[in-house]
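Lab channel / #folding
Pinned by the channel admin:
"Please post every new chain as: sequence first, then the structure tokens as a reply. Keep commentary short and put observations after the output so the thread stays searchable."

First post following the new format, from NK:
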Amino acid sequence: INREMEYFSSNFIVAIHFIVMLLVLTVHGSITSDKEALISFKSQVFSDSNPLSTWDEKISPCNWTGVSCDELGNHVVSLHLSGLRLTGSISPHLGNLSSLTSLELQNNQLSGPLPDHLGNLIRLRTLNLSFNSLGGVIPSNLSRCKDLRQLDLMQNQISGKVPPEIWHFAELQTLNLARNQLAGDFPSSIANISSLVDLNVGTNKFGGPIPSSLSRLTNLKRLDLTINNLSGTVPPSIYNMSSLVYLALASNDLWGDLPGDIAVTLPNLLGFNFCFNKFTGTIPWSLHNLTNIQIIRMAHNLLHGSVPPGLGNLPNLEMYNIGFNSIVGLGDGGLDFLELLTNSTRLNFLAIDGNLLNGTIPKSIGNLSKVLTKLYMGENDIYGSIPPSISELKALQLLDLGDGSISLEIPSEIGQLNELRVLRLTNNMLSGTIPSSLGNLKQLTKLDLSKNKLVGNIPTTFGNFENLISLDLSENNLNGTIPTELVKLPSLSVFLNLSRNQLTGSLPEEIGSLENVAIVNICDNMISGNISRSIGNCKSLEQLLLARNMLSGEIPVTLGDVMGLETLDLSSNQLSGKIPLDLQNLKLLQLLNLSHNNLEGEIPTTGVFADPSKVHLESNHDLCLGLSCRTHRGRNLTLVYIVVSVAAVVSLCFTVGVIWYVRRRQRMMKKGSFESFVKSQPPMVSYNDLRLATDGFSEDNVVGRGSFGSVYRGILEGAAVAVKVLDTTIAKSRKSFLAECKSLRHVRHRNLVKLVTVCASIDAENEDFLALIFEFMCNGSLDDWISGRRRRKNADNMRFNLLERLRFAIGIASAIDYLHNETEAPVVHCDLKPSNILLDSDLTPKVADFGLAKLLVVDANNQTSISSTHTLKGSIGYIPPEYGYGVKPSTAGDVYSYGILLLELFTWKNPTHEMFGGGVSLRSWVQQQFPTNVEKVLDVELVEQMNKFCSDEEIMSPSCKLPQSRRDCLVTVIGVGLSCAAESPEARISIRDALRKLKSVQQILQKQEFANGGHEHCSLQLQIMD
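Reply from TO:
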């Protein structure tokens, strides 16, 4: 028995050891496979700040940043990497994390499709990939994640229809698909997710009616269907979803009356947003009985009637917007309902503009909420005075009382609103003087007092404005001189309008200080004296309007330096002397009106003068042309017209002579083309203009997204434009907007994208709206072609040959040379990369995206400093090495980025390609083969085009040799790229030297093309720096 017990005991111990070893191996195998999945993920993402530096393969992943494991450290259960600025794509190997319950990668810059393998995470409860740039479709096998509670894919580029399997999650509580490109009819099967609490599918392309089956979601608290293509009436059952706390149906095509008993059927409602639809009837009488409601938004509908009682019962109200309906007031007490809002101490937004309200502003308006920031009351029939008590609204940032019948004086107390950014009092009957106290509003960006009856001087205190970008005092009775302090405001960048007043005196000599302003309009005053030569310093001017004054002296020749000038009107003054020949150089000038002056001498014949329809010279009796100036001096206006017509005929003959070239380049433009539109377009458009131009900012018109916001294709007056809408919720978006305006208004070059106009306004939701409108580049970006996206869209599968690639390189270099060496203050782009090189209809490259641009300013001590509102950013692979050590942006940094771009253009390899890493970069890879084996790094298609005598199999073999003449040229080009991308800034050549060498190569290649295979060699010598 003892022997049997000993035998049993020994076998039992062996078995236990065996089981323990199996468990250890299993545990080790699980954590090892999880580590491999995470390493694969890391290999496909990048970030400047290297946030995954703790992901060391030598230690357990449980100790890595953002990784959590179970209590025993056997399995990874959560991966949280939000807000780390990660770029790249999501590795499908994440699907191997079999125990993962939470995956949160929101607020990064990830791109690419959603991996199908995410459906393998069957224990997943939270999936948050919001605020990235992920594309493709929603994988149908995501429905395998049966335990999913939260699915958040907001703010990506996901398209297509939602797979029907998604609507069968049994445990899902939050579903957020907002701000994507999802389409199709809104499915009724969504009612199957009975556990749903929060549903947000706003800003997509869902169409059809709202399904009545939604009412079966008895646990639903938030329903957001805004900005889609939904149509029809709202099913009555929706108004019976008593659990709803927030209901938003704005910006669709919905109609019908709103039920009066909405407070009874939706007793828990805190937010109600029905803006931008076609709802009719009156404001629901019971809505003001929801004592806990916080948001009421019904603007831009077809509502009528008066404001129902009960506003005084809403202590938690934060936003009340009934603007742009047909709401009426009752007699002199039509605005008395505002007094009831004094109980709403949390109110920060109030909009009643665009209605039929009448009456006076109650004196109690100063008792409104102390946190009120925006007050819209314009476009009504409001009369009487502005109560001084309005100054009690200390938090006010926007005050709009325009387009009414308000009279008497502007109360000086408005100058106490220290937070005010926008003051709009236009088109009223205001009288008296402009209070000097307005100069205390140092935060003010827009001031519009136009179309009133104001008198007296322009206050010198306006010189205190620090952030003013537009000032409109036109159509008043102002007198006195233009304050010197006013024209010294460096912040003015949109317009200065003082027209139609009674201003006297001369134009201040300091007017040249307005370096950033786009429009100066001082027409219809009594300004006398000379036009200062300093006007030539206003490099950003697009319109200069000084007509119908008493100006004398000569037209300053310095106006020829304002290269962006599109309209120049100096008519009906007393100007004398000759027309400056420099005006011929203004390539963008579309209207020149010098009529009704005392000008003399010869009329120029080129530039704008070649087109009589753009030039007005009548009533200048001493103007003449050519020989007639000596024999017929003093001829009347008829002769002037004849002379100008002759110039036009000469111009026409010249035009006929170059038609063959125009046809060869296929650059004939249709009527209403972009160019003719840009040159006649005023420099500002409204939000509504852009909303119409982009079909309501339809997702169909989105041509790109980025960290800044979105770019839409739009049509303005028949011409295509690109509308870049900035996301104002992002910090520093306003500074980015102003920086890009400033950079682009200082530059004019054929290889720079043209800024057509800007829009700084309020959107449909009464939020700040900033947009930049550019010429539309129909052929996408250079990155589209390199990645193959654009080529696949072209039936001819166009492939760029050597000369075409060289033309791209020279065009880009020309733009950078202009920015570095030809502008008054050198501009550093800071983000050169293929996606920022756009191509027009002729495939002309144009540098775009100046959101990171820096102006280099040289001070009195010849020290260079940087004028910028940005912290340093850039794009992985193109950022110069020294920036990583805190070195300030410089022109040498742009040269480095250009060098990488040039190498990419000829190798067709992106610097972030998977083949690069572990110490190997695009530059080092090219350097290793240079110059002996340079063909090994060239794009295969380029080699094929240059050697038509090798078979497909021989193309990359040693037996297939490039023609020596072409090879020499390529060695020079690649050498330029390597020299530009040298590690040390001091070792890099200048962009001007790079441009010179590339142009020399181009000339040689063009000669070879002409000679059909000549033997001239590229003999340029270039030292390559390591």
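NK: The mean pLDDT is 84.
TO: also worth noting, The two ends are 84 Å apart (CA to CA).
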